């Protein structure tokens, strides 16, 4: 599921328009935009004029301009597009329906239609559309209530609220501070600010859902069997028993299961906390076994090149949080443009690690997911997380592709061009770029003279400062990298 699935077509296109402008540096031709958005020019003109009017509410903190040829967006330094996104989403009918169901687990369609100012036929259509998106979470709005496994429903609402607005003022929790302090004491840890905020939203969701009747736990109980003797889980279960006894509450045993799952899968624990937990957990749970398999696969891929102990610990810390989510939950909500992040991988890495990311995902799914053939948004975002982990690892591995720049031009323009090329290529991991020296061996030489010849690979610039040349150079560097390190990097997926 994507967040813009909550929007109507027009609003989704308008928000995408603003994002495309941001990705393009703030400016784009109108004709290019209508192709990017796959809308007619007439529709785009309507969207733009209406959007310009909508943005006046922000009092010039963000402005959209159109001169007949170019579209341009400007934001003041202290204003973020996230504010515009939040307002788009919270004003969307589908979002309002979901929040209404959060407060009213059992509802009357007549009352909900009146609340939203919709006809009943329109409301039924919106619910049908929502059910299409909720299906991957194993959820459905049916006969006046939201159905599904309880841990899935809580997971969904946490994702929905946290990513749109985790300072959600409409939702308040009955003093979560006491419980969080007890949790820190029980786990012998001190949670960071963001972890506390995430727990606050989670506990808010739990408090609200605890009031619901006929909660379903069948799948949760099956999945949790390998974790029933986990020491952290047992500590959390005892904490909940003590806490509920003090507050005259009665909670299901599954509440402790859900708290445990959230804590190990949702970026609550610090690196040190994870290291301590790893030392006491069972090595034979599905997630523990998968952690080891994936870690070994990555180390095997880079062998005999090695990572420092600190780098391995950091990598394991991120892997550790990936696998419980993949094991216990279904579905995810795409926050950022994943296609844009994959494009960043091409600009930041000197070799392709996308294939390895996919291999790791398929390996993890074979160990954790019953039906591993189905590809979901959770799979896609897990693969993206593997990519991010591999890029961090890549920065730690000491490998070099040595590039030299040899230009025939006046000293001023030569210096300017060399600095420009270095700026573009130095961001690639493992690439060193320097001025050409005849007595030094290089993997690649960049020149502007077609008649020059070099002992190794070389590239002749078409024109100074073109994005075409930089793109071609990056592709060539990836090819050189693969050829240079083919005997070192293990092809584990063949």
TrEMBL record:
Domain Mga helix-turn-helix residues, every copy: 78-160
Alphabetized UniProt keyword annotations: Transcription, Transcription regulation
Gene3D superfamilies to which the protein is assigned, alphabetical: Winged helix-like DNA-binding domain superfamily/Winged helix DNA-binding domain (1.10.10.10)
Pfam families: Mga
Signal peptide start-end: none
PANTHER family noted in UniProt: CRYPTIC BETA-GLUCOSIDE BGL OPERON ANTITERMINATOR (PTHR30185), TRANSCRIPTIONAL REGULATOR MTLR (PTHR30185:SF18)
Entry protein name: Mga helix-turn-helix domain-containing protein
